[in-house]
Amino acid sequence: MIMRLFALVALATLTIAAAITFSGPMAQARDYPFCRRGEGGPGDCKYDTYEQCLAAVSGTGGQCQPNYWLRQPDPALSGRRPPQSQRFYGPGY
Fold it and tell me: Distance between CA 16 and CA 20 in Å, rounded?
């Protein structure tokens, strides 16, 4: 009975130690401001700059667009609005 309990505690300790040892650092989630969009599909949002996105779609017939899921800062809180040329209203506007 004591040997069984000892074996169970040893197994639990080794399992926890292995989980701590072999678990790597957590991946950091990151939202990118620009997305590549091709034929159908939600798009590929992994570009830091518009130029990077344009280079990725070059010759493929795709388009670049702002990441709709990226939370943009509220212009009312910043005290100024972006110039008209930098505003994006989305499809249909």
Answer: 6
* E strand map for the chain: 34-38, 40-47, 63-66
Please name the amino acid found at residue 31.
D
pLDDT of residue 93: 44
Q: Identify which of 27-31, 42-46, 58-62 has the greatest average pLDDT.
A: 58-62
φ/ψ (deg, to 5) at 55: -65, -35
Q: Specify the 3-state DSSP secondary structure of 48.
A: coil
**pLDDT score, position 50:** 92
Contact status, residue 35 vs residue 65, Cβ threshold 8 Å: yes
Q: CA angle, 33 as apex, 32 and 36 as ends, to 5°?
A: 85
Cβ atoms of 63 and 37 closer than 8 Å: yes
